[in-house]
Write a structure and sequence with these properties.
heterotrimer; A alpha/beta (282); B mainly alpha (322); C alpha+beta (493); B: 322 residues; mainly alpha; two-stranded antiparallel sheet; C: 493 residues; Immunoglobulin-like; 2 domains; 4-stranded antiparallel β-sheet; elongated
């Protein structure tokens, strides 16, 4: 699988497969980020760099702190300590909506389709710098009508690409689970992000749709975006990731190209240990 | 029993200034609750500051009516900022508790003797304004079945015009990109945030907008009646506005208007019947007021559970989980 | 109307005269409701209603009303004699009828109390602004008096006092008041024992006592509010009505109908409150939870339920404040700077014991631990084999029973009144938010502090504004530490 590597991933060939490894062109750098819930250390990341223009898979057993790390990096939760930067600008303490405006957009594990908005309204909401979103100009349509048409065109293109165009007038709440995932991803693209962070994009999706979703993820990279995605299905991760970061009990225990991760002792222990526990629990 | 008389009372009430003022309260609440998902249980507070803004300006400070209207609006904005600043970043229940508490504190303070030199305390304020002096009508509205005195006709014209104006403004805003952000916050504020929207700022704008519309209801209440009394602004004023909103359908454009007319028609007709039954000896006296409130409470509970889209609301939209 | 002369003279309460007066009340924009409100508040309870029928009716209708407010909380150091009920002074001009109104007679009234007990036989005179004596009146055994006058300005003066009773300070013998057409104006007089050591220090000591008393009662009622929120995520805006329900059922069994002793009536009142809590959970909220009704809708349901219960209680109980038949007219005990009646002392000791008991049960009993577990993390508790629905039912029953008991205690130390629950509810909110929403201990701690803050504010600020201070705390806490004293920040966002 490593043979057909994406050109952008070539830059990673000299990076050592060890936790905290420096990358040639990092888009996101985190240092000492930690978060405790009561007595539980949910996240404790010493150093992590995410390479620009590639797909980075973030894996780890349940409760490893993947979603919490997402929440911290995107401003949805406040850490107890640590700092991180995006495109060399500090993001520590930056509010979630500003993080998105800087070009780092996330999706959610539990899909947040806006049920009582139509599909096209969901999409148009994603566009930034809309003049009509300010309360004064909103009253005067000539001030924002032209921009609205441009946004709608762009939204329709994306809907077409995500095969949702025939649903554009439906309420988002009427879509199937998989379609909502697609809508959420398409909506995130309306923000025109540099880095897309997908929290379990495959969770709860009909297997027939998984391949199509994976196709969309790789096409993001092909358009020059950077992608981080959380997943705990190893096979999915290994298939499309250029680089894999493994989290367990809040720490980065390993990182490297998929092939190296597959053979990593610590990863196998963490995963098998956890799957073993899972089976016992059943 | 005088059924025709009861219906007359009901109709009279449905088109009167009181229904128009409550329509304004409900339009403001619709911005908060219907579109933004802000659980404002203190609309009576905006009602109060609008009315006292006018009353205090005229009766206590001797300002002109235009200055008084301006003060009423300023007071509504100020209340919205005060309420929103500590609570809009917190979970919605905190907001609900704070609004109901602050509205009640305002009423207690306005009603208290120490505040008397400003608010008139328990006696309230009586004043006069040039409002009726500019009444262009010579005769009152006569619809045959019901009729209104000449001054009431003028008051109705102005108040209902404001209702129409507020309805149009809200409709315009809600169909704009601004309204799209507002509705997305109702659905899921984290999603809105993840798309780069400053949720706090939008909630605050919504709170101010709905508060100002509610405050306008208070301003008209004071001007029309030439009087302000703290007891008008009891918590039940908020609950009536909720009943009206839910009756007409939350997040529907003309819902508050239809709801207010329907609400006051049913309430006034029902009370008239209960009162007649009282004087005829079928029922104990004094039941009409509490009965109306009991029915309002019951109506709120049933409507919000079984028909949250209201009588005319969009069934398709509301069948989706919110 | 208002007819012949400006003097209608002093009157004792007579339901016939009263209703004839209220029937002529001025119309008002909110007329349909406010007028009837007043009428009902003044109407004597219908003797035909037996307590039993009422109890069943109320249970079926799930009715509850709000508890009394602080105005008449006879803080002994102030020897306050006021009875200022905002709800009463309701008058105005119909918005639809701006033409001239005929003048209505107004009413001067008040309740003279000393250490919480009504003082009869106090002679008062009323003089109009021309210096003409309009008339005199004498307070009845419960300390109440009233005097009907035309609208205008008057001076009311205490002319004679019974043996052993004095005005708290010398300049307190006269009050200038104004009455509007058809309005009711409360005229407060400060009675107290003539002591040398009055002043701020004594008042302070006394208000600490008052604050503890109200704080303990609030704490008892707030535990249920907080636990219901913790276990179901629901803020019960009808909780104040549960408080008053207990007080009113007890009053019906004690001072009316079967005339049971207060201890028996109170026990039955607590049981009835618990059953009502169960009925509300099983009859309303459990089915709604099963239907998956959203939280916003549920909150509106509790608002509707509160409105409904408050007014069912109003019809059932009437609008006037009342007292229980036992333990009244007690001699005041003096302990250093503190003065209090034995019944207040017993209520304070009992509420302290009950709160300690509740705290202990929550910490040690299986059900208490289960409650805290569900409040902490419902899903985790469920997956650990706890029957969450059963725990929620028990929380409702015990929370409602504690609320009812708090209401009875409130009624014993002050009065029973249908509207007071709503005002207590707002103080409970302040208490639970100060302590930390969803935590049982926080609710107790926060309520105690809110009780102290409201009562101590009286030392420096006007009595009428004390609730504003209590609720001001709420806003301050939200600004500074929204999770409260004992809460965690994860719960607030």
């Amino acid at each position: 699988m490593a043979e057909v590597r994406h050109p952008a991933a070539q830059a990673l060939s000299d990076v050592p497969a060890e936790p905290g490894a420096p990358k040639p062109d990092p888009i996101l750098v985190a240092d000492g980020v930690s978060r405790r819930f009561g007595g539980l250390q949910a996240v404790d990341v010493d150093h992590l760099e995410i390479q620009r223009g590639v797909i980075t898979g973030l894996i780890g057993p349940n409760g490893a702190g993947k979603t919490t790390l997402f929440n911290l990096l995107t401003g949805f939760d406040q850490p107890d300590g640590g700092s991180w930067s995006f495109n060399d600008r500090s993001l520590s303490g930056v509010a979630a909506h500003k993080v998105a405006r800087r070009g780092m957009v996330r999706t959610f594990q539990l899909t947040k389709a806006l049920s009582r908005l139509t599909v096209i309204d969901n999409m148009k909401l994603g566009a930034t710098k809309q003049r009509g979103e300010r309360i004064g100009p909103a009253l005067i349509k000539v001030l924002w009508g032209a921009q609205e048409r441009e946004i709608e065109e762009r939204a329709d293109e994306l809907l077409d690409r995500f095969k949702l165009l025939d649903k554009r007038a439906d309420y988002a709440g009427e879509l199937s689970g998989g379609q909502r995932k697609l809508l959420e991803m398409a909506r995130a693209l309306m923000v025109e992000p540099e880095l897309v962070m997908l929290d379990e994009p495959m969770a709860g999706v009909n297997p027939a749709l998984v391949q199509s979703l994976l196709g969309h993820v790789t096409s993001l990279r092909d358009e020059g975006m950077s992608v981080i995605f959380v997943e705990h299905d190893m096979d999915v991760v290994m298939n499309i990731s250029d680089w894999v970061v493994v989290l367990a009990e809040g720490r980065v225990i390993a990182e490297g190209p998929p092939a190296a991760i597959m053979k990593n002792r610590a990863v196998i222990d963490a995963y098998l240990g956890s799957e073993h526990d899972d089976e016992e629990a059943r | 029993m005088d059924v025709v008389g009861a219906l007359q009372t009901g109709l009279q009430s449905a088109f009167g200034t009181q229904a128009a003022v409550y329509a304004l309260l409900a339009i403001g609440l619709n911005v908060h609750y219907g579109y933004t998902g802000l659980l404002n249980f203190g609309q009576a507070g905006f009602f109060l500051v609008g009315a006292y803004g006018v009353g205090i300006s005229i009766a206590t400070w001797g300002l002109s009516i235009w200055a008084a209207v301006f003060m009423g609006l300023v007071a509504s904005v100020a209340l919205a900022l005060l309420l929103g600043a500590p609570t809009l970043r917190l979970r919605s229940d905190y907001f609900a508790i704070t609004t109901i508490a602050v509205a009640e504190v305002l009423r207690l303070v306005a009603n208290s003797a120490p505040a008397g030199p400003v608010t008139g305390g328990p006696l309230g304020l009586q004043f006069s304004s040039p409002f009726y002096a500019v009444n262009p009508f010579d005769v009152g509205l006569n619809l045959g079945f019901i009729s209104y005195p000449v001054n009431t006709t003028w008051a109705m014209l102005v108040t209902w015009s404001l209702v129409v104006l507020a309805t149009l403004a809200v409709a315009l805003l809600m169909s704009s990109p601004w309204g799209r952000v507002i509705r997305s916050i109702r659905e899921d504020e984290e999603a809105a945030r993840s798309l780069g929207k400053n949720v706090f700022a939008y909630k605050m704008q919504s709170l101010v907008l709905g508060g100002v519309i509610g405050g306008t209801g208070g301003i008209m209440w004071a001007i029309v009646g030439n009087t302000v009394n703290a007891n008008t602004f009891r918590p039940q004023a908020t609950f009536f506005a909720y009943a009206i909103l839910i009756l007409g359908g939350a997040a529907s454009r003309i819902g508050p208007i239809v709801g207010s007319m329907l609400f006051w028609f049913v309430l006034a007709t029902g009370q008239s019947v209960v009162r007649q039954a009282g004087s005829a000896g079928y029922l104990p006296g004094g039941l009409a007021g509490p009965t109306a409130l009991i029915l309002t409470g019951l109506g709120l509970m049933l409507l919000v559970v079984y028909r949250p889209q209201g009588v005319f609301g969009n069934t398709r939209e509301l069948s989706l989980d919110g | 109307m208002g007819s012949n002369d400006h003097l209608v003279g002093p009157r004792r309460m007579s339901s016939i005269q009263r209703s004839s007066r209220t029937a002529r009340a001025v119309r008002h924009p909110e007329t349909p409701i406010d007028e009837e409100y007043r009428e009902l508040r003044l109407r004597r309870r219908r003797p035909a209603l037996t307590a039993l029928v009422s109890l069943i009716l109320a249970l079926v209708a799930a009715a509850v009303a709000g508890p009394a407010v602080a105005e008449q909380d006879g803080a002994p150091a102030k020897g306050s004699s006021t009875l200022v009920l905002a709800q009463d002074e309701d008058e105005g001009v119909d918005a639809d009828d701006v033409d001239e109104q005929e003048p209505e007679p107004g009413l001067l009234f008040g309740t003279l109390r000393e250490a919480g007990d009504g003082i009869g036989g106090v002679e008062l005179s009323v003089v109009d602004d021309d210096g003409q004596v309009v008339g005199t009146t004498v307070s009845d055994d419960s300390g109440q008096w009233e005097f009907e006058v035309e609208a205008g300005d008057y001076v009311v003066t205490v002319e004679g006092l019974p043996e052993g009773i004095a005005l708290r300070d010398d300049d307190g013998a006269s009050r200038e008041v104004s009455v509007s057409s058809g309005g009711r104006t409360a005229v407060p007089f400060q009675l107290g024992e003539a002591t040398a050591v009055s002043g701020r220090a004594v008042l302070f000591a006394q208000q600490i006592l008052s604050g503890l008393r109200i704080g303990l009662i609030l704490a008892m009622t707030a535990v249920g509010l907080s636990l219901i929120f913790g276990t179901t995520g629901l803020i019960n805006f009808a909780h104040g009505e549960l408080v008053v329900f207990g007080a009113i059922v007890t009053w019906m069994l004690n001072a009316a109908g079967p005339q049971l002793h207060l201890l028996i009536a109170g026990t039955l009142g607590v049981i009835a409150s618990g059953l009502l809590g169960l009925a509300i959970d099983r009859g309303i909220f459990r089915p709604l939870r099963r239907r998956g009704v959203g939280l916003f809708q549920l909150l509106v349901v509790t608002i509707g339920l509160g409105l409904l219960m408050r007014n069912v209680l109003l019809i059932w109980f009437g609008g006037e404040p009342r007292q229980y038949a036992d333990y009244i007219g007690q001699q005041r005990l003096t302990l250093g700077p503190f003065g209090l009646t034995p019944r207040v002392l017993i209520v304070m000791v009992a509420s302290t014991a009950i709160l300690i008991g509740v705290a202990t049960l929550l910490r040690t009993s299986r059900m208490g631990k289960a409650m805290r577990a569900v409040a902490d993390n419902r899903d985790l508790a469920e997956s650990s084999g706890i029957d969450v629905e059963r725990v929620v039912s028990i929380v409702w029953v015990s929370g409602a029973a504690l609320a009812g008991l708090g209401g009875i205690f409130y009624g014993v130390t002050l009065t029973v009144e249908y509207f007071s629950g709503f005002q207590l509810l707002l103080l409970m909110f302040a208490g639970v938010i100060l302590g930390g929403l969803g935590t049982a201990y926080g609710a107790m701690l926060g309520s105690l502090m809110v009780g102290l803050i409201t009562e101590l504010s009286v030392v420096w600020f006007p009595d009428e504004l004390k609730y504003a201070w209590g609720l001001g705390v709420l806003v301050l806490v939200l600004l500074v530490r929204p999770q409260g004293l004992l809460g965690r920040r994860e719960r607030i966002g």
